[in-house]
Each structure stands twice: as structure tokens, then as C-alpha cells.
Design brief:
The protein is an all-alpha fold. Helix content is 62%, strand content 0%. The chain contains ten helices and no strands.
């Protein structure tokens, strides 16, 4: 189990570039938190990278993430990683978030989506995005409607981090990967 194998598994099941980029964004956030907390960066990164790898084929609960967990088990992934991925689904009552990796994944998942959406509408993309800008977008119910704001708030609280600091931390974790994630530049002025 390494990052190359995990990425290969991701792209075997996911063809939609935006879902691949979302997975890579969550991976970046998870790796950054692992570094900060003295955890296994490779392990945390792979959990972030693979958390939605089954979503494109099986988007309906509980197939997502249960179908993926079966595939991961067949391929020899450790049970704690499989559990962390399953625990990001609120609708699986037998998978409460108990470990730090579980809580980190839940805290980063929806937030990475909101940060991406906010970056994509800015002339400079993510380069000058701040937590305060993201928090303003959180209040706008019409913006990125699929992103569950209550999950972002609950995730930060459960993970034990201040929401504003958490948002900025995830932005900063995604910035070094901005080019590969398509977040360097938002919509150009002639498209708005």
C-alpha cells in the first residue's frame, strides 16, 4: 500500500476530473494535518485520496462507502484505514468517528469542496483566498449548495479545531497543489 498504488486505484474507479481533484485536495489536507500532529503522513494521505473512490460508481448510501470498503479489503488495505473511510459517512451507525484520522477526514472532506468552489470563482484562484472569504461563502446558501455547512462546522468541532483556523489550514495545505488541482486562477473576467 503506497500512494502510487492508491492513485492507480482512484483513477481505475473515478473518471470525473473534479472528483479526482477533490480526492487530491482532501489528501493534501490530510497529509498536512498528519505532519502537524506527528501522524503517519502516507497513511493519512491515502485515506484522504481514497475516501470517495467508489462514489462515481456507487453514489447512493450505503453503497458509498461500503462497496469501496469491500474493494479495499480485497486489495489488502488495513482495517483502520477502511474504517476511517467508512466513518466519513454519517449514515453508517456502526462507524462512529472515534480515531483522530476518522475525525480529520470528516473535518476536511466537505471543507475541501467549499474551498475549491470559492477558489474557482476568484480571479486569482486559491492564491489569495482567506478563511474569512470562505466563511462568507458558507453563509451564502445559494453558493455551492451541495456542500453541507453543518458538516463543516461539526467536523471542526469534533476534530477539536477552531473553525477559522481549520479553514485557513486547509487552504494553506491545498495551495502548494493549486496548479495540479486547477485552482491557480478562477473564472476569467470575460467569463463572468
Amino acid at each position: 500500500m503506497n500512494r502510487t498504488e492508491a492513485y492507480s486505484l482512484l483513477t481505475e474507479y473515478v473518471k470525473e476530473p473534479s472528483l479526482i481533484n477533490h480526492s487530491r485536495s482532501v489528501e493534501a489536507a490530510m497529509r498536512a494535518y498528519a505532519r502537524k500532529l506527528g501522524e503517519d503522513e502516507e497513511r493519512w494521505g491515502i485515506v484522504g485520496l481514497l475516501h470517495d473512490f467508489d462514489y462515481e460508481r456507487w453514489p447512493d448510501p450505503p453503497d458509498h462507502p461500503l462497496k469501496g470498503s469491500e474493494i479495499l479489503r480485497e486489495r489488502g488495505y488495513p482495517e483502520d484505514m477502511i474504517y476511517a473511510i467508512k466513518s466519513h459517512a454519517d449514515y453508517l451507525p456502526d462507524c462512529p468517528r472515534v480515531n483522530r484520522i476518522d475525525k480529520a477526514l470528516y473535518a476536511c472532506d466537505e471543507l475541501a469542496g467549499l474551498i475549491t468552489a470559492a477558489a474557482l470563482i476568484r480571479p486569482n484562484g486559491i492564491t489569495d483566498l482567506t478563511a474569512s472569504s470562505v466563511k462568507k461563502k458558507m453563509k451564502s446558501k445559494g453558493f455551492a449548495r451541495a456542500v453541507k455547512r453543518e458538516d463543516i462546522e461539526a467536523g471542526a468541532q469534533d476534530f477539536g479545531v477552531d473553525l477559522t483556523e481549520h479553514i485557513q489550514f486547509v487552504i494553506d495545505a491545498m495551495k502548494p497543489h493549486a496548479e495540479e488541482l486547477g485552482l491557480l486562477r478562477g473564472a476569467s473576467s470575460d467569463e463572468t
